Amino acid sequence: MDEHCVTSPAELERLVLAMGFLPFFQNDLAGFSVEEHTPPELWFSDAADGPWEWKGPVARGGQCVYGKLFCGKAGFVSMDWFADFANYRRDGYDFEGWYEDGLAPHKDKCVYDTIVKNGSLSTRSLKALCNYQKGGNKGFDSVITRLQMQTFVNVADFEYMLDRFGRQYGWGMARYTTPEAQFGESALNCARSPAESKRRILEHLEKLLPAASEAQRRKLIG
Q1: Which of 28, 33, 85, 185 minimizes the number of CB atoms within 10 Å of its CB?
Q2: Residue 121 lies inside a defined structural domain of this protein
Q3: C-alpha closest to that of 116 among 154, 81, 79, 150
Q4: Residue 169: φ, ψ to 5°
Q5: 207-217: pLDDT as tens digits
Q6: Phi first, then psi: what are they for 206, rounded to 5°?
Q7: How many angstroms separate the CA atoms of 207 and 113, rounded?
Q8: In this structure, is residue 147 part of a structural domain?
Q9: Residue 185 lies in a domain
């Protein structure tokens, strides 16, 4: 595949569907990122939208999950592969069982329960409801990253400020939801064991990136 081939959100979505899953930024696996498949001039350009703006349309498109899914960093997983990621990462648990067995701290439960109760929340609203404001709780970034890596939470979309002409500006604020809320419970059904899902993901990575070491592949999927 050409190094720089993606020039629109539709092409980005097609790339993720073809690959199965793809980190957003360059990582230890050469050539395996959105960054390496898009022209550098489209990153943070005032003249044209690029990957930073495309991630919202792809995240809400219904075919790919977006979130911090690779070593605590952002990326996409297609719906064809997400059930295996969730099965492996959750190790067969739902969140309540995960929490009851001591695998999640109370802060994580508070954030997760707040998202579930509301269906979806912007970062600003979620921080306010869970008291992650000046003088309140600390460590929001760590909590929300853990929940995404465990596949209990994902990013449904990004919301932007508008100037007086109605044009978007700024970095975009994440709106968080759960995979179950966005895609439905059935989208997470998986007939394999967590170990079988992990093996399937690693075997797929080996086919995609035969030059990468096993240690590199295992590190990427966590």
Answers
A1: 185
A2: yes
A3: 154
A4: -150, 165
A5: 999 999 999 99
A6: -65, -40
A7: 38
A8: yes
A9: yes
Tell how far CA 125 is from the center of its chain: 19
Residue 48 or 207, more confident? 207
Instruction: Please say if the pLDDT value at position 1 is more than 50.
Output: no
Question: What three-state secondary structure class fits 135?
Answer: coil
Q: Is residue 130 domain-resident? A: yes
Domain containing residue 59: 9-221
Percent of the chain with pLDDT over 70: 94
* pLDDT tens, residue by residue, 3-39: 558 999 999 999 999 999 999 999 999 999 999 999 9
The 10s digit of each residue's pLDDT in 95-145 is: 999 999 999 999 999 999 999 999 999 999 999 999 999 999 999 999 999
Cα 180 from Cα 169, distance rounded (Å) = 30
- Positions of E strands within 37-153: 64-70, 73-78, 120-122
Mean of pLDDT values over 43-67: 90
Angle at 52 between CA 50 and CA 55, to 5 degrees: 100
The answer to whether 158 and 55 are in contact (CB under 8 A) is yes
Coil, strand or helix at 145: helix
Q: Quick one: which of 133, 129, 187, 123 has its CA closest to 157?
A: 123
Record the tokens describing residue 171, joined without a space: 């970095």
